[in-house]
Amino acid sequence: MLGRLGYREVERGTGWMSFGDGTFYITLVQIEERFAARGFHRKGIGVNHLAFPAPSVNAVDDFHAWLMARGVPVLYGSPLDMGHPDQPNYAVFFEDPDRLKLEYVHRPG
Question: How far is it, in rounded angstroms, from Cα 76 to Cα 35?
Answer without folding.
Answer: 29
